[in-house]
Amino acid sequence: QYSTSAAQLQRELDAQQGTLQAAAQAKQAARQALQTTTAAQHHLLSQHGSTRLADLRTRWQSALQAVTHAEQCQALATTRREQTQQHDQLAAALQVETTTLAQHDSALETLRLRYAAQRDVVTDKRRLLEQERLIQSLQAHRQALQPGHACPLCGALEHPAVASYQALDVSATATALHAAEAALEQLKEQGDAAKTARATTQARLLALQEQLQQLHSARAHSAAQWQALQAAAPTGDWQQPEQLAATLAHAQALQQTVQQALQQAEDGEHAIQTASATCDQATRAQQHAIHQHELL
Q: Is the pTM higher than 0.85?
């Protein structure tokens, strides 16, 4: 029986020794894995100029901000170019309307002069018609005049205008007056139409001036925004879209590179934690095996 007990104890000692060796090997493997994982993490961080994961996260945040900044600059530059184009278009339209308004003023002045002259013609025609009608109304008195006899109205002994008075054509004078009045009315209508056209042009001119004033304020605001963005981080000339696009592309590429590195570093950090936990577990398993071996 003693022999059986000794053999049993030996078997237990051998088994426990195997457990101790396995625990030691597991601990060594876990420690080596932890060292390898930690070294790889340090190498990855050093490639991106960092010594800690927190530093790489800060770089990633900065890269994101750089992309946002470049996008803002590109959008604002587009706005400024559009505002400049709109300003040029409005200025050209304003010049056209200014020229058109001057033409309306010149045409109106010409029409006013023509109207005044035609009004004088109508006045003269009316006066002439009135005189001819008055002369015509004295036809009976003219027929009673005799050469060498005094005129009952003026006392003249000779009457040289009688023949010319008899040749007067009142209807022709009335027709001429009507034609002059029609021409005067036509000039008035042309003047009214010209005034309407001028008022329309003036309204467009005022609207363009107001748009230009509003655009001037908007351009000043955009210029101030641009100056502030460039003071924070220069990106290029707002009139050079290709340069701004290249700046944005560079910022996006850098952000993607740092983001990939950050993902790898976070995976590496998780691997370190896992390896550290495995190493601690192996250490505790070895300590337990040693304790069990000492109990034998």
A: no
